[in-house]
Amino acid sequence: MLIGAPATDREKNKMQREQWGSRFGFIMAAAGSAVGLGNVWKFPYLVGENGGSAFLIIYIAFMATIGIGLMMAEIGIGRYSQMNPVGAFRKIAGRGWSWAGMLGVITAIIIMSYYSVVGGWTIAYFIDTLSGAVVGGTPDELGSKFGALVGDTTRPIIYDVIFLGLTLAVVIAGVSSGIEKAVKVLMPLLFIMLIVLVARSVTLEGASAGIDFLLSPKWDEVGMGTISAALGQSFFSLSLGMGALVTYGSYLNKNDNIRSSASWVCFLDTAVAVLAGFLVMPAVFAFGFNPGAGPGLTFITLPAVFSGMWGGQLFQAFFFFMLFVAAITSSISLVAIPVSYLSEQFHMSRVKATLLVGAIVFVVSIPCSLSLGIWSDYTLFGYGVLDLLSNTVDWYLLPIGGIAVAVCAGWFAYDKIAAELTNHGELPFPLLGAWKFIMRIVAPIAITWVLVGPFLT
Ligand code: TRP
Predict the structure, then answer these.
(1) Which atom number of ligand 1 is nearest to the Cα of residue 331?
(2) All domains of the chain, ordered by start, with CATH?
(3) 142 C-alpha vs ligand 1 centroid, how far in Å?
(4) The pTM is what?
């Protein structure tokens, strides 16, 4: 650029690329992305359905090897390139790799479309708990209330819009002044609320049966399906395989220690999932409910549990607020992915890009929501729109994205990413060899198994 000449948009973009204000801010943002509905809503019912702690042990084993390894790889790809996922894969491994980033951008929009619907339910349940509308009653009564909410035509869409609007507002405000500021308050708040709720749950009379359930593995209930479910869940829970951490990593300071930040995020994510188990299971057992209740566990069984408990309404309000916080910090990072792509590759302003993403997500979220109500007859392969999108993501898009990251990091861009992980040799990384082996061999094979697993059982 000539001295004095006005900067082009592209140069402005480069000069103005934002960074996280602090290491703590980055860890909270990445943990905020990871800790979400997957931890609090899905994880406990998966544990309930898959042999209790046997599932937990397999899950932790995957987290500690493939999960953490892929997380380092994604953050490394992002920080190396300082770009959105599409640009990042291209820059680090060549033109032929942009599809891997594009897959992430598309996956993010798809996930966001149903995530915002479920996020809307958390707001509805928080409000309905305060008003007393979903307080008290048997699981059957609460089940029909839940069915009435999600099957309604307008109410869930109104809450969907509120949830989406709040998310967009944070993303528009920017990386350090919006996202980082929000997560630095919300995430510690979430941890505190979680601990209060767990303390309440494990001190209930009869809680020990639930604790036993979480601590005594039933290996005979473990099959191929359990193992691929555990790996799939570790992926979804860590927000891997779709460029979320590439995006967040791209705003990371070059001096930061990726290994230790990634370890923190994996630890926090696992801790929240396990604590959510210790929140849900002891309470469910104490009141004699079924731990294998599936997806209804959070919205139906838990309110029934709360209704039998002293101070139940207050704890229930706390719970749904916490679930909302977990969901919104994840949805912020989901929206940030396509926004970084649009604003960088098409030189759109951040506001315009965010509003465009919001509009697309909103349009797709409508059939998602209606698929549980008036459009429930429109199915493909037996699934309504919401289930179809969610299964496509879990079964195909995230595993393919994960294999792409592993192969890219292990075979095509190993030296560049290894340099990021060691800050060009400044930081020791004794397990670098193990990391390389996991990226090259273990992760691609294990994840392929997740892809084909459902066809084998
Ligand atoms: N990790 C989130 C959860 O546990 C869900 C999720 C998957 C996600 N991929 C993501 C969130 C990407 C943000 C970005 O609920």
Answers:
(1) 13
(2) 21-456 (1.10.4160.10)
(3) 27
(4) 0.92
